[in-house]
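Batch job 17 of 40 flagged for manual review because the log was empty.
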Amino acid sequence: MSAKVISGWFKGVFSRNKRDLSLEDPETSRGSSYIDKLTYAIGDVHGCNSLLRELIELIRNDSRGYPGQPRVVLLGDYIDRGPASREVIDTVIGLQGANWCETIALRGNHEQVLKQFLLDSAKGPDWVMWGGAETLASYGIAAPTRQNTEGWLEARRELARTFPSEHLHFLNETRLLYKAGDYLFVHGGVKPGVPWDQQTAETLLWIRDEFLDAERPCELVVVHGHTASETVKQTPWRIGVDTGAFATGRLTCVRLFENERRFMHVKKGASVTVTPSELNGPKVSAV
């Protein structure tokens, strides 16, 4: 994507999120929501493999200060927009095989579209508008123009032929949601008024405004990505950690331990991933 396209996309997404409450007052009490073990939830990666690897290393080092094996939840959207979608999937698969943490990989709407494209080339013209060209390029395939129907047929055939079997298995095994303690981890959000275990895949992957506008969308605290913002977004009943890594160079996670929340990030071009105050700032009690 060009710098102009990235800037326009991020400005549009950010303008929809001005109503959200950012974590500007970390001393605000959030109540007593509890999680069963040390958990890190990582926001949308979107092809930024170097940032992901750096954040994983930061998490690993940070977790050594806590008892037991930590849990790492990835909130989906590993692919598209950034330059290294294939490498990101390799990194997540590698993390799943690591013995120092438990890894939970959720599905994002971008992975859903990729799965659909592998079966139907008609999805290609829309997918390329959402960053699919960068994913194809990471697998060595050039994206045709949107109007080139034959070109999309050939691109789908070539991707299906060369797509690694372990990557397909990974996509098929990604989860739509994960519950731990008083927290629900999803990619997009939940439909307000519907029990968490009765949400549809369409909602969990794609919902935006109806979820974001709800004061308490769910009986659990929802941790999600999907809706990018320049800063972490937190209200009493939801935590948004998509900080638009491919556009901002900033990849973020929330660390949950017992009834505390803290945020960690890595940033492109920074010689130090986070400052001590960012990593070890004031404790935040959860809802």
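Reviewer: the log was empty due to a logging misconfiguration, but the result itself is present. The chain is about 35% helix and 15% strand. Unflagging and moving on to job 18.
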